[in-house]
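Much of our argument rests on the idea that a fold can be written as discrete symbols. Part of our work consisted of pairing the sequence of a single chain with a tokenised description of its backbone. No coordinates are needed to read the tokens, only the vocabulary itself. The record that follows shows the chain in one-letter code together with its fold in token form.
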Amino acid sequence: MGLNSLNLSFWFLVCFFRFASASSTYVSCNHFFPFSFPMYFMKLLGVTSFRLQTCDEDFTKKNYTIITSSCKGPEYPKNNCCRALKDFACPFSEKVNDLTNDCARTMFSYINLYGKYPPGLFAHLCHEGQKGLACDADPPASLATPLSTPPAFLFLTSASLTIFSLFL
């Protein structure tokens, strides 16, 4: 029984690191909400000394007119606001989606400061799928690397192997 649980743990870690290392071309929906997912659960677990790393992107000097010129109240048109948010945030999607730093919080603080937007405006207006806002330009695949295997296939393969190993 101990060998089976060890095997299960191994495949869980393989899946976890595979999905964690996948490149992101989305602006995650997790950052639209007032609390950060890991920080919320760290507080539930009683960990109080956990600190996010300071963002290495300087959001103080960014040009926010991309958003403020397109997303204007009192109507806040969904298409204009979401397109402007994507145009602004997609170049920083990797940093904004990193849950170990405070880039998302910093970016949205400045967006709300310069645009004087109501709380939760972008969370309410802009959602395209489970992962968040899709950035249009995917990074081109390198010719030196082979075609990557889709994560869903890897997950199904590892799950099948794990289940199979439980019956051995």
